[in-house]
Design goal:
CATH class of the largest domain: Alpha Beta
CATH topology of the largest domain: UDP-N-acetylmuramoyl-L-alanine:D-glutamate ligase
Number of strands: 17
Distance between the termini: 38 Å
CATH architecture of the largest domain: 3-Layer(aba) Sandwich
Structural class: alpha/beta
């Protein structure tokens, strides 16, 4: 297959949906000669902060001249960004070569009466195959959803497991309490392999520690973060022996993600990776970036994109807005998926805005703009719905030019942020 045929194929298999479980992915990987067994992996699960945390770890490893594979989803701006080596997206030719091999195995499975692998299982197998072929020194693997039965959870050994802050999300699949969700996330812990856990609720940490104890895996919970302040638009903080750390990525929550990354780098140093160095760590925090995480895409007007789509992320975003936009007039663009707890997200964020526009993301799971407006209006009366993202932005641009607002913040779902960035760049 060529690149177009490969992309058409992955689009066509979307009919197989999302299925939790490991039987299919293990069979697919077996037919590919188990490429994951050739990889030195760091595996990460959690509700919020996964992408930023591995971006910090990736930057440190790249600065130390290691060849780093990264697999994370969903894509924000461009499909191929889910699979990278040293920050470079997989190219079309390599994607097509790997997909051809993966498709042959999928077809053989179906011919033998097995279920067709899902799109995520196919992409996961392709990523592992690509990293193995390219002989990556280390790979950073992000779960798609959950942990225990996520298609990425196929490693017999890992250098380190990571569990970032856990909040209520994907409850129809993972459970209706922090404890239940934490139990599923903790399913990535591998016997006798260390796990780094972001400091979070006692309920989550207790569950994670219990699972780790059963697997005789040492647990490192991140310590207190100190001296948090904003200076000239940059976050500054201290963590353990490191003072005046200042990530390029804004957001108070980045101090939490950075503390997790530092503890992971401490473990990787013990594994033989020469990365636990003050200069490497500070430089990594200053260089790491990630699409759609409090990302400023325009200065005039100020436009910020953030993928906050659950109550935990909304609480972090609320704190960040308070730090960076004190006494500023804010307008929000909100677009959400119907299966998210958008009522609680609206309750946390809507009171902070002077004006809000709701939109319908281009996603089959999207909540329509009018329904979201009805929900948001319970927390902020200055809300309108828009039938297009272009119209929503034009409306707010006019308000900015009239001096009625100081900045625009778009959040709620990653699925529409790429389209909004393209609109902003055109204006």
């Amino acid at each position: 297959m060529n690149c177009k045929e490969s992309l058409d194929y992955i689009s066509s298999v979307s009919i197989y949906g999302s299925v939790l479980g490991l039987d299919s992915i293990k069979e697919l990987l077996k037919r590919l000669d188990n490429p994951q067994n050739n990889l030195k992996a760091v595996h990460i699960a959690g509700t919020n902060g996964k992408g930023s945390t591995i971006a910090f770890v990736e930057a440190a490893l790249k600065n130390a001249d290691y060849k780093v594979g990264k697999y994370s989803s969903p894509a924000v701006y461009e499909y191929f960004e889910i699979i990278t080596i040293n920050g470079e997206n997989i190219n079309g030719d390599d994607y097509a070569k790997c997909m051809t091999l993966v498709k042959e195995c999928c077809d053989a499975m179906v011919e033998e009466g097995m279920a067709h692998p899902t799109p995520f299982e196919i992409e996961t197998a392709l990523a592992f195959l690509y990293f193995s072929i390219n002989k990556c020194d280390i790979v950073l693997i992000e779960t798609g959803m959950g942990g225990e039965t996520d298609a990425t959870n196929v490693f017999n050994r890992v250098l380190c497991s990571i569990i970032t802050p856990i909040s209520l999300d994907h409850m129809q699949f993972l459970g209706d309490s922090i404890e239940k969700i934490a139990g599923v996330k903790a399913g990535i812990i591998v016997e006798n392999c260390p796990v780094v856990v972001a400091n979070q609720t006692k309920e989550a940490i207790d569950v994670i520690k219990k699972v780790a104890a059963e697997k005789q895996s040492p647990v490192i919970v991140t310590d207190e973060i100190n001296d948090i302040e904003e200076k000239n638009g940059r976050l500054h903080f201290s963590y353990k022996e490191f003072s005046d750390l200042s990530p390029f990525m804004p957001g108070v929550y980045q101090s939490v993600n950075a503390s997790v990354a530092i503890e992971v780098l401490r473990i990787l140093e013990e594994c033989g990776f020469r990365v636990f160095d003050a200069d490497i760590i500070k430089k990594a925090l200053e260089q790491a970036s990630l699409c759609g995480r409090f990302e400023k895409i325009s200065d005039s007007p100020v436009v910020i994109l953030d993928g906050a789509h659950n109550p935990g992320a909304a609480a972090q975003l609320q704190e960040t807005v308070g730090l960076y936009f004190t006494n500023k007039k804010l307008a929000f663009i909100m677009g959400v998926l119907a299966d998210k707890d958008y009522d609680r997200v609206a309750g946390i964020m809507a009171p902070l805005a002077d004006f809000i526009v709701t939109i319908t993301p281009n996603n089959k799971r999207a909540l329509d703009a009018d329904s979201l407006k009805e929900t948001v209006s319970r927390y902020n009366a200055n809300v309108v719905s828009s039938d297009s993202l272009e119209h929503a932005y034009s409306m707010l641009l006019e308000k900015y030019n009239l001096g009625e607002i100081d900045a625009i913040l778009a959040f709620g779902s990653l699925s529409y942020l790429g389209e909004l960035k393209r609109i902003v760049m055109r204006h």
